[in-house]
Each structure stands twice: as C-alpha cells, then as structure tokens.
Give the backbone structure.
Amino acid sequence: MKKQNKVAGLQRRKAISGYLFIAPFIVGFLAFMVKPLFQSLYMSFCTVEVSTEGIKNIYAGLSNYLRAFTVDTEFNRLLVEEISRMCINSLAIMVFSFFVALILNQKFKGRALVRAIFFLPVILSSGVILGVEYDNALLASVQSMVEETTNTTSITDAIENILVTSGIGVSAFETVFEIVDGIYDVAIASGIQIIIFLSGLQTISSNMYEAAAIEGCTAWESLWKITFPMISSLFLVNWIYTIVDFCMRSDNKVLDKISEQMIAHINYGFASAMSWIYFVIVIVIIGVSSLIISKGVYYYD
C-alpha cells in the first residue's frame, strides 16, 4: 500500500511539473491568441470591407469557402502539392533524423564536435539567418553562377536518367531523387528531431543491450526489440513537430497564396477561409496519423 501511494505521489508531482512547464504557453494562448482566432473564423464567413471608417464585416455565409474550392483552381492545386510535399518531406526528415541520432549516440572520438555540427541546422533555421539565406542576393547570384558554369553530370542525375529511361517505377524514382536532391532542406529541418531522438536514446540503459547480446540478439534485432519500443513515444512527438514546422516554412506556397490575398488584394474574408481550410486539413492529418502511430507506442514506467 505504501509503495502504491509513493508511486501515485510521484506521478502527481510529475503531472504538476508538466502543467507548470506549459503554463506560460497556456496563459499566453488564452490572453493573446483566442480572440484573434475566433475573429479570423468569423471573417471567413464574411465579406470584409476596409475603409477610413474601419473594418466592416458583412456576413456572406459559405461564399468564401465555395470560392476556394470551386472558383480558385490555383488554391486547390497548391493545397494538393503542399500536402503531398509535407507528407513526403516529413517522412524523409523522420528517417534522416533517427539514423543520424543513432550514429551520434555511438562512442567515437570527436563526438561532441560532430553533435555540435548537426545542431547547426537549428541555428541556421532561426529567423535572421534564415532571412539571409532566402533573401541574400549575393548568395543567389553565386548559386546561379555555379549552376551555369557546371557542365558535369552528378551521380544522382546519371542514375536518375538510367532508371527513368528504363521505365521502371518512374514516379517512385522521381520522388526518391527529389528527396535526395533536397537533402540540404531535409538536414536543415532535422535539428530538433535529432536532439529529441538523441535524448531518448541516451535514456536507454546499456544493460538492456548487454542482456540482449548475451541472449544472442543481433544488433538488428536489438534495434527493433529494444531501441524502437523504448523511444516509440518520441516518434509521435517528432512527427507532430515536423508537420507543424513544415506548415510554417517560408517557402510554403499555400501561405504565399493566403498572404497575397490578404496583403495585396486586401481580401481578408477569402484569406481567412483559405487559412481555415488549410488549418483543418493539417489538423485532420495530424489527428489521423497520430492515432495510427499511437497504436504502436510503448509506454513504460
């Protein structure tokens, strides 16, 4: 009975610590985000008129949503393209970050330096550096010069040409090579995921691997029987983070479309409707995928 009370007390303290940790976010969300959220939702059902007298919302029903789905064909096309790109890139980021974390968890000389190098994408993806990367005219001119003066064919281009001309799984190979060509984008978006996976790997006791080796388990079997179950909950965390992070990227064409309608055309109602459509689709994807992943999550005390 005393042991059960101690366990319950420990769980209660952990829960309190967790709520205290997220309390600043909850307070900030309730204070600064709830009202604009409902205002945006109401605007999506209105025709918003902006004048010197202020902003006037005229209720228009589902006209903005019907326009987004039936009139504006570009939005539908961009929506499908970005959702597809999100799913493919998110899977690539998860695989890349997990195997990099496995490598960085090994013992070798210079491990701290290598870990610092792989953490650089987190720094490079911060606000100022990211702006320099995407908006720097000098970097853009250097890149175009390199592309113009480079006449050699890369190994990936040669392999892609061979496989595509052979006609075997053309669409699948094109997707794979698109990911390979965008490995820089995958790496720069994997910094946080690598750290989360690495922190989970370091919590696994080496005694478990030693016991498995004594029982005759190979490294591959230990990976599937020990490593995956012990950090399975982190796959769910990283998957949600990766999707949300992708949806906030500066090269998201759906967000560019929404910003264009909101800023250039001053069409707040239509922009709000497109925003809510995109938001709901992403939430549904997160919910369904999280439900599927959670079925395989192993929780342990």
